[in-house]
Amino acid sequence: MLIETLEAGRAVVVVGSGRRADVVVSGLGGVGKSQLAARHAWSVWSDTELDLAVWVSALSRDAVVTAYAEAAARVLIEQDPQIADRPPEDAARLFREWLATTSRRWLVVLDDVQDPADLRGLDPPPGAGGQVVLTSRRRDVGLGRGGHRVIELDVFAPDQALSYLTEALAGTTSSADREQWQRLAEELGWLPLALSQAAAYLADQPLLTVTAYRAMLADWRRTLTDLTPPEHTLPEHQATVAVTWSVSIDRADRIGDPARPRGAGLARRLLEIAALLDPNGIPHDVFTVQPMLDFLTTLAGRPVAPDDVYDGLTRLHRFNLITLILDRPARAVAVHALVQRAVRDTLTSGHLHHLAHTTANALLAAWPASEIFSRDLVQALRSTTTALHLHTIPALLTPTLHDVFDRVGGSLSFSGQIQAATTYWRTLHDHACTHLGLGHPVALTIRRQLAFLLNEAGDRVGAVAGLEALLADRLRVLGPEHPDTLPTRHGLARWRGEAGDTTSAIADYESLLAEVQLTTSHDFHALVVMRRGIIHWQHWRHGAHVGDPADAVAAFEVLLADLLQGSSPDELSTMHIRRELANWRGRAGDPARAVTELESLLAEVPHVQNPDNPIAFAIRRKLAGWRGEAGDRAGAVAGYEALLLDQLRDPGPDPDHPDILTTRHKLARWRGEAGDTAGAVAEFEAVLPDQLRVLGPDHPNTLNTRSNLDRWRNALEQEGVDTET
């Protein structure tokens, strides 16, 4: 069958095999469906036993009827001398009936079928001596009915693409360009039509190197049309890449069946959105969250529901403009990168700006509240956001930095990918400086994130220096009253404390508190944050408490009482203070009460967040630790074991998440405290390589694990000595 052509690189003659071997070749416009069918037809035509071959450009029902009528006029003239004068529909019907009954060998190629409905009553019936080859950009289920075998034709494999370019460019470029050919093929998505037209363009420009052509291709100011040969130089019946897909988009977007109009008019808009995102796969929820539905409703001039969107995506899938991968919801919508480029070329700057902000809002709305159980989805959202930014620079940098960037950067930091987060923010900073200027408020905002990452990586002195420089620039550019200046001063106060300069930290917090109190409409939450910072750094230095912890307990009790007067006890800010108060009770020598208060707090978590939220996990982690400090060491081990199981359960948690690494560290410690020294050593030995890989060798958590591993190894060696003696 024709499938063997794909596998062995040759056409296989199946006419006269005694059974139908009908084939449907489906695929994206430009993958070479017609070329494959033509190759097969020419091979079959060399068979002396073949009596008839008909090639039909099946762009419409009228085109098929006309081709059948012309074939009937040639084939049936002896049986019906008046056949040429009959109405085309009648002649086509007679030709179809002849195909069904004749003993002669025949081949009918229906090329580029636009709509399966166009073939109703015209698709050749089963015949012992015939074969139908049908090509279509569509992949409707109906195309495979009636015994047709469906071949999904994809792009070239990388080695096939390289072989094609090597042959096509032979004599026009140096064989030393082989690596450049490989990269060009990859950048064109290994699409045969695009490779063909790129090769033709290069052949027509003898002074143009492949490297220079790739640079032109990477220049988003050029369209694909700019990089293809003039239309009059293309082979007959071959359209440019952009024109080839525009036909499919128009078809996908039309009403078609009046009984199923739901996705009509939405397909093009959905493809415009997909064209801005990750070609390897986009979460389907991005297309159905409320910001996107509101946007589509405005464009469509009618209410748009998720079902309408699903129908629009299905239309695009039918025409091979996207691929729906239903068993991979985090990457459910994939689209060829060159299709994306062709669609982006059609967007005006104003529409692109609007699309960028709408899509960024949709990505935020699709982001899960808890990332720990949504690793695949979060990774897809991060890569999709990056693609959106790169395709729309500088839209999401103006008028302010879009919140989706904070979500991506925070997600990378939260998952422990500090180096990746640093690279991410540095790239954004470069873009902001290039497009907006070094002193632009957006560039300053990004510098704050970079300073934060220095602190996360353990370079607290570097973080303080970065924030000091940033604060000076913000005061100079924005002034002391600007809303962005206060968070910078707050961050500087906190990180001075983290760096060991608690005196400066306390002074900074006290100064901030005094300024907030002087404002006529002071922010109650800001007051709480400042007071909390003062209490914390008055009693905590270099990872240990200083002075009398009972003083910290008393101060947090007063802060909690004040907070409860202004907000609900179930609010997150209140829960943070209650958790900190419980911790200080434990440090003050009352671990049993710390356990009681944390148990009470944990019971209230469902009122605020899902119990699987990291807040609940943080409370459980502290709770297990204070149980151990209260004397229930076995209970501490059990608590950490249960917590780790919950953190690692389905669906798809990230085992490298810093919170999970912390739980493993705590579990190892309490195994040792509970008497299982060997178990502690084994746990520490298991978690240390993961911390080295994820956090790096200089991260405080990694250093802490090294220290504990040495401690418990020494204890294990001592146990060995005791046993021997």
UniProtKB/TrEMBL annotation:
GO molecular function: ADP binding
Entry-linked SUPFAM superfamilies: P-loop containing nucleoside triphosphate hydrolases, TPR-like
Boundaries of every NB-ARC domain copy: 23-166
Protein name: Tetratricopeptide repeat protein
Source species taxonomy: Bacteria, Bacillati, Actinomycetota, Actinomycetes, Pseudonocardiales
